[in-house]
């Protein structure tokens, strides 16, 4: 329970949901908060170690069933994302990409052998997955992807490259999307296959506590059973993105909450002109507006989560949540930064780190503009994408 819960939204969570949230919050307090400023500064995160700890708690693929996955509700998964991102968006990204993108793709579209091979190890955090859709020349428009998979006897040969791929530098398996003569198909690619190389992208100014990479696929020979048999067409990777975007709808609120709590605490202790910053009407107006937006965002997340649990959530509804909650979270982070004055730009406080991280969150999993186009199409019946 946070003082920010102006609307008593907590009361509409079940006891189990509150317990899961408490466990994840404690884990973040113990394992992420004390170290994350250093990870961010160094541009490195002990992702394997964290994955094993998250695996022990059942956070990896937590909304999936079977194969060692926890089978939690969408709302419980959302609350976990919120708590993880209150620590850092990069840490939440590790969990999202593992569970909602790589594991979900194998769980939803893989063969029984692929599921048995990868999912239990991934749920335990012993194997790390990545999801390769974006390419150097094709981001928002994955339908134009250039990566090709062609048949050679029973085998497949993959050629191309993927860019900006979270977890790629340490991944054991990559879910790689490629164009074939029959359309877009997905492949579960062991990252140690000859011809696969993953290079880390350094010097990011955002999401520095997350490993991002470029994957080169140089005539990679794969057996026929590497293809995800149930994935036909672009709708397959897009359905994985819908899963991950739902987590982001919640996660972004975690980053915003941490900024707001920091700004509230700072404003009540920092004195100027003989009184706490929090006592000035202008500061209260900022805090009030931000808290109202945060509560609206949480109501939206909860509504979408309940729709997901009822099996009724549509992708365009997830776009509403991703567009609004990330846009508001980044606005909150920037406004909180002003309340901290010069300290706002210091790594001693989490606010600028969150604000910088949210720049990536605004861009990945569909940019704000792409979500506006999805909603525009829903409203008008006209596609304005191309
Ligand atoms: P572009 O598509 O080139 O877009 C540039 C700008 O043009 C954007 O503002 C965009 O909104 C706008 N634009 C594009 N088309 C239109 C249009 N039709 N109308 C109006 N405006 C338009 N990808 C993965 O596959 N897997 C990952 O794990 C992954 N992790 C990432 C991690 C980080 C840190 C980052 C930054 C990115 C990651 N991505 C990942 C890539 C991300 O999904 C893409 O960056 C995103 O889809 C946008 O593509 P782009 O960068 O090529 O931008």
TrEMBL record:
GO biological process terms held by the UniProt record: fatty acid beta-oxidation using acyl-CoA dehydrogenase; fatty-acyl-CoA biosynthetic process
One Pfam family in the UniProt entry: Acyl-CoA_dh_1
Domain Acyl-CoA dehydrogenase/oxidase N-terminal: start-end pairs: 14-126
Protein name, UniProt field: Acyl-CoA dehydrogenase
Cofactor(s) the record lists: FAD
Origin superkingdom: Bacteria
GO MF term set: fatty-acyl-CoA binding; flavin adenine dinucleotide binding; glutaryl-CoA dehydrogenase activity
UniProt keyword list: FAD, Flavoprotein, Oxidoreductase, Transit peptide
SUPFAM superfamilies, alphabetized: Acyl-CoA dehydrogenase C-terminal domain-like, Acyl-CoA dehydrogenase NM domain-like
Keyword Calcium: no
Coiled-coil ranges (or none): none
Domain Acyl-CoA dehydrogenase/oxidase C-terminal: 232-379
Similarity comment: family membership: Belongs to the acyl-CoA dehydrogenase family.
Acyl-CoA oxidase/dehydrogenase middle domain segment(s): 130-220
InterPro entries hit by this protein: Acyl-CoA_Oxase/DH_mid-dom, Acyl-CoA_Oxase/DH_mid-dom_sf, AcylCo_DH-like_C, AcylCo_DH/oxidase_C, AcylCoA_DH/ox_N, AcylCoA_DH/ox_N_sf, AcylCoA_DH/oxidase_NM_dom_sf, Glutaryl-CoA_DH_mitochondrial
């Amino acid at each position: 329970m946070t003082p920010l819960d102006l609307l008593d939204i907590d009361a509409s969570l079940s006891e189990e949901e509150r317990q899961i949230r408490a466990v994840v919050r404690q884990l973040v307090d113990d394992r992420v908060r004390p170290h994350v400023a250093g990870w961010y500064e160094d541009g490195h995160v002990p992702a394997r170690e964290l994955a094993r700890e998250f695996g022990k708690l059942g956070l990896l693929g937590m909304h999936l069933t079977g194969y060692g996955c926890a089978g939690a509700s969408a709302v419980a998964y959302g609350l976990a994302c919120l708590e993880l991102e209150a620590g850092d968006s990069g840490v939440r990204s590790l969990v999202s990409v593992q569970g909602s993108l790589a594991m979900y793709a194998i769980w939803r579209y893989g063969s029984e052998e692929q599921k048995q091979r990868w999912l239990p190890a991934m749920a335990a955090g012993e194997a790390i997955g990545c999801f390769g859709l974006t390419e150097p020349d094709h981001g928002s428009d994955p339908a134009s992807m250039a990566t090709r998979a062609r048949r050679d006897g029973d085998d497949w040969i993959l050629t191309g490259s993927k860019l900006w791929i979270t977890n790629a530098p340490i991944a054991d398996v990559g879910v790689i999307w490629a164009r074939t003569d029959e359309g877009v198909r997905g492949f579960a690619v062991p990252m140690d296959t000859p011809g696969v190389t993953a290079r880390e992208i350094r010097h990011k100014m955002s999401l520095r506590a997350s490993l991002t990479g470029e994957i080169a696929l140089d005539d990679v020979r794969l057996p026929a059973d590497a293809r995800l048999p149930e994935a036909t067409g672009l709708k397959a990777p897009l359905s994985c993105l819908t899963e991950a975007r739902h987590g982001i709808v919640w996660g972004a609120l975690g980053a915003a909450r941490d900024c707001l709590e920091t700004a509230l605490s700072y404003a009540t202790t920092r004195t100027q002109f003989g009184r706490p910053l929090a006592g000035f009407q202008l500061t209260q107006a900022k805090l009030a507006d931000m808290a109202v937006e945060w509560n609206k965002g949480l109501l939206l997340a909860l509504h979408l989560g309940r729709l997901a649990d009822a099996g009724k959530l549509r992708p365009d509804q997830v776009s509403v949540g991703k567009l609004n909650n990330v846009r508001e979270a980044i606005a909150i982070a920037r406004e909180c930064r002003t309340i901290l004055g010069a300290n706002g730009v210091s790594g001693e406080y989490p606010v600028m780190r969150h604000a910088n991280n949210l720049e990536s969150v605004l861009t990945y999993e569909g940019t704000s503009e792409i979500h506006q186009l999805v909603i525009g199409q829903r409203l008008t019946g006209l596609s304005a994408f191309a």
